[in-house]
Write a structure and sequence with these properties.
alpha+beta; 7 strands; two-stranded parallel sheet
């Protein structure tokens, strides 16, 4: 079921729950695209326009056709990803963040399925290896996990580092990609 959310601005946001092997994922959609993919533990800290989600507790009326279409595509593509038949996503995105954060999130989308990079490597790809910590902070605020694959970034020594869905979920996602791609990630 899709529920309308109200932000403090006049923009309407919609959410739907997608079941997955890593637990229920809340997908937040604007009229433009996916605004966030939230883990069960997320409590509104992920920016969705005003920094928090306000659920009005009702269906909120008719869900626009464009939003319904995006929601259907997201659910289908996540299902295919977890089934091992999809290695990339092509749904429209609408993340909220600073220019640097959005640059970091774009760089995440350039990491191929089944591969990992370190924060330093991601920073270098963005033009300044010395910004590894800033990249790590930006990745930590990635509002669209899995679709924007921050789980593919690991510590310099290959260790699994922080992840909003938890380290075990990060390990699960990397193992899934390792099996599908035939690469050794860990």
């Amino acid at each position: 079921m899709t529920t309308r959310l109200e932000s403090h601005s006049s923009e309407a946001l919609y959410r739907s729950i997608v079941d997955s092997p890593v637990g229920p994922l809340t997908v937040v959609i604007s009229d433009v695209g996916v605004r966030a993919l939230l883990w069960p533990e997320d409590d509104g800290r992920v920016p969705t326009g005003d920094g928090r989600l306000i659920d009005d507790g009702s269906a909120g009326g008719e869900v626009p056709t464009a939003v319904q279409s995006i929601m259907t595509d997201v659910a289908a593509q996540l299902g295919e990803y977890f089934a091992g038949t999809r290695t990339g996503f092509d749904v429209p995105l609408d993340p909220v963040g600073s220019d640097f954060q959005r640059d970091a999130w774009r760089a995440l989308r350039d990491i191929p399925f089944g591969e990992t990079v370190s924060y330093g490597e991601q920073a270098e790809r963005m033009g300044d290896r010395n910004k590894a910590r800033a990249v790590g902070a930006a990745n930590g605020k990635n509002p669209i996990s899995i679709i924007v694959p921050c789980h593919r970034v690991v510590g310099r020594d290959g260790s699994l580092t922080g992840f909003a869905g938890g380290i075990e979920t990060k390990r699960f996602l990397l193992d899934l990609e390792r099996r599908v791609s035939g690469r050794s990630l860990l």
